[in-house]
Each structure stands twice: as structure tokens, then as C-alpha cells.
Amino acid sequence: MVITAANNTRLSRRLLWGLILLYILPGLFARTPWKPDDAAGFGQSFTFSQLPFSEWAMSLIGDRMYVEGGLLSAWLAGLFGKLALAVDLPHNWLDDAMRLGNVFWMILAGWAIWNTTYRLAKRVELQPEDPLGTAPTRVDYARAVADASVLCFLGTLGLLVRSHMQVPEIAELAGISIMLLGAVRSLDRPIGAGWMLGAGIAIAFFARGWAHCLPFLLLLLVSSMTHSSLRFGLLRRMTRAAAVFAIPFAIWFFWLMSQKNGELWWNAWNEWNVRRFLILDPTQSFDLVKLVITLKTLTWFLWPILPMACWTIWRYRKALTEPSIRIPLAGGAAGVVVLLITNPADEANYFPLLAPLSVLAAIGLSTMKRGLISLIDWFAVLWFTFAAVLVWLGWTAATFGFPAKIAANFEKLSPGYVPDVIGLELALAFLASIAWIRLIVWRTASGSRALWRPMVLTTGGVILLWLLMMTLWIPRIDYAKSFKALGDAITQSVLNHQAAANRECVADYNLGYAQRATLQYHAKVDFIRKGQFKEASECEYLLLQDDTRQSLKIKVDFESKASERWELIWTGNRNSDRHEFFFLYARTQQVEQQTENSSR
């Protein structure tokens, strides 16, 4: 494919950043935390927002230690929460304010991916053939390819849902993207590369631990050091710059861990990191079942950048040793290593692949034949149009009861939900659908030959689907995944039982992280964990969680041992979950009198 100035049309900076905001903002606000991962991450951040900075050394959900993840994303969300409390925002807006951290991490990741691709695309080995002397300048060509990399990044299916949740892998993705940029900058600016590598290491480490950070650091360093122009002296300066950036953070972090309960959390967090390595856990192994899970998840999670990156590797198979291909390829290899040594069933473990594969996918766009580009376009048109029609059809059935069969299926998924047509959301969904039709017309009629054109419809289709889901379906999704109604019911049950009772805390038993976080937020009570069936003298109430699929064994066991101390005053569950039940107990009057006598 001959690249000319016509292929080199670049996206305006406003449009590019506007696309990122249009991608990330819908779905962040006007909803409650969703179980399980979003709710657990919110609980971690919510606890930080309630604590003084001196107690931020230990990640908690209520009074319960939480080590699954890191601290950085929760710190940032907790900081937004503190700001929201400082300006006296309503209580139900607090979770919305904390999700602003996602906007920061997504913009940071997009910036790093754009700059990584830009610096690679300027290199000599990636310049297009120019037999007629009509090729664009290096800078113009690099900008067009970099624009395409951001579209590839936003058009990846696996990023869509979790990027709108309070999960640590979003911050880790930003850190890995910066590490990749640092490896690329080592080719010409080793000191700046050291700063970038140090920043990326710090972000990735604090975000999600060293289990993912270590493979990337090793492979990217090896890939960078094999560059012939990176002599020992330059490498030493790059390492020194990285250390200057990373060591102060490490000292501060270890000082923080030396504070109250910090060492306890640090040891538990390290144990969690070790358990993530299958080879270090004798009870785990990477067998055929995990291989099948990995291949199935890769197929949809990394669509379409995985096949596009494979195309790039094939087209540049004779130039794999060139830095412009070797460095993002090393990043992709590190992501594969992460999958092989960790749990492939966890979607969070696929996030390290997003940045290097987005770069590789964009690099190969200029080598694609016109027929392949048309195939990508028409696949996007057919698939996303069909999906959009299904979303509209589902909303029509769920709202107006026609078609009846589809409406019945929705009722099974969210029994008891009463649909309500909201004019603003309906208007936004309609405008998004019109914009999709206009985008298709523009793409097919304009004859644009810009390098990024194969990704326009794919990225636009992803944004369309998300906008439709977050306007037409968001009330029903929120109803199915939220604990707000359950939290309100618990609060009302406590008030109805004894209005004058001390309800500063509720003891809990067998309560999951997600349930604990959201119920504490919505019910506005503090949960005190009960490790055994002993009475919690500081709490008047106890909340127990059990599952009907286990024949409510925990509830039966509890009542057989503590029936004289606690009485059942409320039972409830979310309408969308037929198996998860909650039981609220109140301390019996006899126990209260005994407690008062013993205190005297």
C-alpha cells in the first residue's frame, strides 16, 4: 500500500480527547456501585475517604482488611471522596465523585499510548515506501498512526465495562503504558526514559502489586538494552534517573507501611501477590481447562486489536529485531507471561496486553490491503448495527411489554422492576443512533483514505453500544446490581425494631466484600466483623449472609449456637438474586440486661 498525503489526515486534538471523554464519562455517574468488583473497589475508596491521611497505610473495607489489589487507585478515589465531603455534596453523589479517578487513569493511558506509537512511527524502519515521492513527512505520518492507536485502544471490547468500574487494573494499565513509553524513549533519550520507567513502575506497583509489574519491567529492559546505540553509559544514566524517581516513593511507601497496622497489611498483600503466581501455589496449575479459558477470553476481550497485532507481526516478520517492533512485541510477550503465571479466568489479568497490542495494531494499519479494510468496516457496520437494534428491541419489550417473550425474559432477570421512560435518556439514545447512521454514511460515501479509517466504525460502534446501554438500560442494570434498596430496608428494619437503639454498628458474619461495602454505604452503618459465633458486645444488631444453594447451612449453624442471644427481626434479598439472602438479628433483651449487670 502506497502512503500519500491523502492517507495522512490526522484527527484534531480536540476530537481525539473528546472521544476519550465520550467513551469514559457515560456510565460513571447517576448509578450506584455494582457487585462484585466495582462495589469492593468503592468500599475500599469509601473507607479511605472517611479516614485521616495518617491512617491510609492499610486498605480496609469498614474495619476489614482488604488486600486484593493495590492502594493507588483507591487513594485517588478516596481523595476525590474527601473533596466531595469538603464541599458538602449529597451523600448519594459520593460514589459518583470517586469515579472521577477513572477519567484521570484513562486519559493518562491514552496519552502514553499515543506518545509511544508516535515515537515508534517516526523511526526509519516504519516509514512507508515512497516510489513517487508523495509520502508524508515523518512527523505527519507518525501523528496519523498515533491517532489510530488511540482508536484501537478505545475500540477494544474488553476495556469497555471494567474501565467504568472502581477497579485497580485501570491504574495499572496507565502504569504499564508509561513503562512502555519509557522503553521507547530509551532509544534516543535515556534520562527521560528513566523518569518514565520510574513513574510507570511506581504506578503499576502501587496500583496492583508486583505480580504484573515484574514481567513487564524485565522484558522491556531486555528489549531496550539490545538496542545497539544504548551503550553502557547511557544505560547507567537511564537507570539512575529511574532510581531517582522510584526510590523516594519506595522510601515513603515503606515508611507508610511502618505506621499503625501497616506491616500487617504489607505481609498480607505480599502473600496475595505470591498466591497469584500459579507456579508458587501447589494447589494451582496451568492445565488444559485454563488454556481453553484463556483462548476463549482472548477471542472477545482483545477484539479487534489481537488479530490486527498478529497481522502486524506477520507483515514485519523480517524486521522483528527492529526496536519499533521489538519493544511493543516484548510488552505483548510480558502480557502473555502474566496470563500463563496467573489466573486466566480473571479478566483483570488481560489488561496488561491492551497497551502493547494497541500500538502493534496501529503500526500495521498502513500495510493492510483495501479488501481487508473493507472487511473490517462491514463487519463493524453489521455487528454493531445488529447489537444496537437488539438494545432498542430489548428496551421496547421491557418498557411496553412487546414482544411478550422478550419482555418475560427481562422480568426473570430483574423481577419487580417497574420501567419508567425518562425523556432525557431517550433523547440521548436517539441522538447516538442518528450519529451512528451518519458515521456509516460518512465512512462509505466520503472515500476517506486516512490511516485510522479502519478503526473509525469499530470505535464508534463501541461508543454507540455503551451510550445506548447507559441511557436505555441503566435503570434496569442499576436495579439488578445495586444494594441500595436492601440497605434502605436494613436501616428501616433497625428503626422499626427500636427507634432509640444504638445503631452505630452492626456485627456481620459471612458478609462478602462487595456486600459489606455497599450496604455500609447505603444503610449508613458501620459493620464490625464477627469471626466466631460469639456475641459482639459493642453492637446491637448482627447481619448474616447465606446462600440457598448451600441450604442456608451458615444460618442454621448460627441459630443453633446463638438463638438465646439473638432474635431474627428481618430477612431480605435483592429481587434479581434468588440465592443470596440476608438475615438481620437483634440482641435479645435478656442478653442486654446481663451485659449491663456485668459492666456494673
UniProtKB/TrEMBL annotation:
Keywords: Membrane, Transmembrane, Transmembrane helix
Membrane-spanning residues: 72-91, 103-121, 193-221, 241-258, 291-313, 325-342, 348-366, 378-402, 422-442, 454-474
Name the UniProt record assigns to this protein: Glycosyltransferase RgtA/B/C/D-like domain-containing protein
